[in-house]
Amino acid sequence: MGTRLLGLFLRYVFPSLLVLSRSFLDIDSETLIPRVSALEKVPTYLLAATYAAAAPFLRYDPVLCVSSLSSSMAGITDMLWTMAYDAILQRLSGGEAGGLAILQTILIYLQRPMADNRPAHVDNNSASWFLVATAVQSAFKLGLHMDCRAWPGLPPWEKRLRRRLWWVVYSETIFRSLLAGNPNPIHNDQWDVAVLDDADFVIDGLQIPSEETASRVPALQEPCRFCHAGYDFLFIASLACIANQVLDTFYTYNATRRLANNFSASLAQAAPLLRLLQEWKRSLPRPRQQMRPEPIFDPERHDYFHSRSSAQLKLTFLTLHVLIYRGLLRPLAGHSGSEDAGAGTSVPRPVPGADAALKNAVELIKHTLAFVQRLGAFDCNGLFYSWSCICFSTISSFLLLLLLVQHPSSPAIARELAVVMARWPSTMRQQSALFKQLRLGLYRLDTFLLAGLETTFCFPETVRQALSDEFSPTSSYSQSFPRRNVS
Ligand SMILES: *[C@@H]1O[C@H](CO)[C@@H](O)[C@H](O)[C@H]1NC(C)=O
Ligand SMILES: *[C@@H]1O[C@H](CO)[C@@H](O)[C@H](O)[C@H]1NC(C)=O
Ligand SMILES: *[C@@H]1O[C@H](CO)[C@@H](O)[C@H](O)[C@H]1NC(C)=O
């Protein structure tokens, strides 16, 4: 059963979290299941973490699915996570660096999914930040920040593993810093690991064929892109590099002081970042460019060998856009489209570029609503990273920010945003049945809706009118958004 769980890890988790060495595990090319003898080479705590991470995918292994494990796994998973966590604490308090195995365990533990019974607002941010900081520190201690390709003496599998581990640490750190608002602990001047390429996904003595070509004779088989070409982590890692620039450009302490009141400077900084995101999207291979979730009634639909959903890429891509626009529109808060509308100025001076930026932000938020509405069961295996919940919450706050804090002075824009605002809570409510990741965002949104938007925010008549047009008096929000007696 352990080997089968490891096989599931390699199929469904590894493409997002390439922290194990497959050469080390002696795997079978058709099933990715390792031999039993390989388990003896892996420390117990690391096995515990991999089993726990594989648990949500149990149903994709028919043997496990009918085994007694499938009913007891829910109870065992918490114990496995605790074993992994205790081992981490024990090694750290002993002052040991812990070696690669502890770092691998930490990186898997960081993606521990939210427990079903945990209240949505209990976010373990501070707890996970301690693990991120620990991961960074041990990565530096282990020398992962130095490119080891040219080093003599290391076995090839360890070189590949070290480079992959560095990139996982880097990506995890950057996204969590940006999303949680923590200073980034990895300085650009402190590392030189080149971008991952196909050579980092070699498996000694083994080539895994792609699903489409597996039934051909070996000479005509093509290598599996999830096993040998770094799908999908490679795309996340290149987004992490852009995320790092977004962080440096808009969200450091100095950048905030420099840009928060200067729209033209913010605009100049945002443009290249938006271009980088477009280039990233264009660089994706064809099946990945089509980032819409697939239609629900797809006659071709079958169980894929790997998760093929692009939901994580799309969510991360949209979240970075949102963060760029949030930084860009910051100087306009409260007086959209005009600057220096101080006391005594009756006609606000228009700011060049502000209207276009606001319109683009509205398009972005509409696009994001459509993305969340279209998420389907197919994407459940796709939203893998535990920071996805902060992405949804960031998007949700951005909508409130645009409508209720930026105060669009144009009634047309206010109306468009109000339309999205009216659909957003119900979309999140429905989709959170399938996606626990939405619960944090929904919780924060409901806090405002319950308190009443008008009592929480101070917004002008255009916005109030647009909102009361959209929220019908019979909606559940008529109470949270009281209609003003117009007479
Ligand atoms: C998250 O919080 C829960 C309960 O508050 C705790 O049991 C768990 O260990 C925490 N997770 C981490 C990563 O510390
Ligand atoms: C940040 O701002 C302070 C005060 O203006 C300045 O002294 C410091 O050099 C700035 N830091 C960077 C990295 O530019
Ligand atoms: C805004 O930034 C630009 C470019 O950095 C600078 O030239 C200008 O003086 C700044 N404006 C204000 C009001 O600080």
Automatic annotation (TrEMBL):
<dbReference type="Pfam" id="PF04082">
    <property type="entry name" value="Fungal_trans"/>
</dbReference>
<keyword id="KW-1133">Transmembrane helix</keyword>
<protein>
    <recommendedName>
        <fullName>Xylanolytic transcriptional activator regulatory domain-containing protein</fullName>
    </recommendedName>
</protein>
<keyword id="KW-0472">Membrane</keyword>
<keyword id="KW-0812">Transmembrane</keyword>
<dbReference type="InterPro" id="IPR050797">
    <property type="entry name" value="Carb_Metab_Trans_Reg"/>
</dbReference>
<keyword id="KW-0732">Signal</keyword>
<feature type="domain" description="Xylanolytic transcriptional activator regulatory">
    <location>
        <begin position="128"/>
        <end position="202"/>
    </location>
</feature>
<keyword id="KW-0539">Nucleus</keyword>
<feature type="transmembrane region" description="Helical">
    <location>
        <begin position="384"/>
        <end position="405"/>
    </location>
</feature>
<dbReference type="InterPro" id="IPR007219">
    <property type="entry name" value="XnlR_reg_dom"/>
</dbReference>
<feature type="signal peptide">
    <location>
        <begin position="1"/>
        <end position="21"/>
    </location>
</feature>
